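Hey, quick one: can you model this chain's 3D structure?
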Amino acid sequence: MPTLQIIYASTSGHTEYVVGVLKDALKNDKKLQIADCKAEAAKPEDLLQSDVLLLASGSWNTGGIEGQMNPHMHDLLQGRVKDIDLAGKPVAIIALGDDRYFYTCRAGEHMRRFILDHGGKLLGDALLIVNEPYGQEERVRKWAATLSKSLATHNA
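Sure thing. Here's the predicted structure for all 156 residues.
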């Protein structure tokens, strides 16, 4: 049974909401085992223990520069696991953002760079959620279906 580890950073609850919709959409896939944890609680082994990893974060204006990852995801990827080798692990991305800012959903680019710089392999296109996630559930479900197909192909 393939395993999916979701690590997400959510302070306002938007990213956590999207992850919840995603998990609900994937739960019909009885051949997939899903685990999740918040970035602030994640340990290095959490990035390596599953067949596929999913990173999810909103875009923030921390440090005076817009378009950064949520501080918890930043602390994880640029701190606790900065030297990790993903060893070819497939990784999917969910990035949230606000169209009021120039660098909308740029957290996705930071996560993408982390994956590639640490030997991971991007699994499909990132899911980008712009503005409030409420009302965008169908986009998440469609992306979940695509992710499920990618997981099936990866584990075939």
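One thing worth noting: The domain at 3-154 is CATH 3.40.50.360 (Rossmann fold).
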